[in-house]
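Researcher: Here's the sequence for the chain we discussed earlier.
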Amino acid sequence: MLRCFVTIADLGSFTRAGERLGRTQSTVSLQVKRLEELLGRSLFDRSPKSLRLTGDGERLLGPARKLLHLNDKAIAELFEPEIAGFVRLGVPEDFATAHLPSVLAEFMEAHPLVELEVTCDLTLNLLERFHAGAFDLVLVKREPTLAEATLHGTRVWREPLVWVARDRSAADGRDTIPLIVSPQPCVYRKRAIDALDGLKRPWRIAYTSTSLAGSRAAVKAGLGLTVLPREMVPETLVVVGPEAGLPLLSDTEIALLEAPSISDTAHKLGQHITAALERP
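Model: Thanks. This is the structure I predict for it:
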């Protein structure tokens, strides 16, 4: 029941979930109905044109993934042969630096015969190389409101974004905000510009860097402000916001994409990443 529920949530369709699980749509619907009856909660809001999780469904999704992960891990240890093979993973540099090392280390410790190749790059480059067949799995940044229309995949992380500066007075007295950004197209760059435009606050691109380290160094040197996920702000920099005349920033997402035909080993790594990182 939980596997049906999670698969529907990931794919956004009872029909596609049935195809993924090798079951008919009616069987998948029955499993969800049984789960809802068992919990006494409605998990999906259904209409002829849309399907989305209810509040209770959102709250169940993370724990359901973890339960499935524990189940699959126990079964694998008992019955499956040792997992082995070569997996190619593409990751945005900032996310790889802050969140991923311990997750990958846990997987490699459990499966020492797996060879893992991790490439860090901008989301645009990762997507281009992914579609060209260069990766088995990629983690990419995406806009939550456009996610279903522009990117498939499973959301594994939601990031609160903040303005970052050298000190709290960095934006004081400035008619035009100097921005430190990544090259176009970049979700954080677009978010910063759109937010300032919405507030009718002038801005200019003061520094462009392809690396997280370069952006942080430019901010520390006082060349301008940048946008980062809150959990990636170093202690040497400060978070600024409305008190400095800057607009609030909405969240962005990290999604996991799997190549159409990947090995069981790569798929299991994808499941591990999703279970370890998924948050509401």
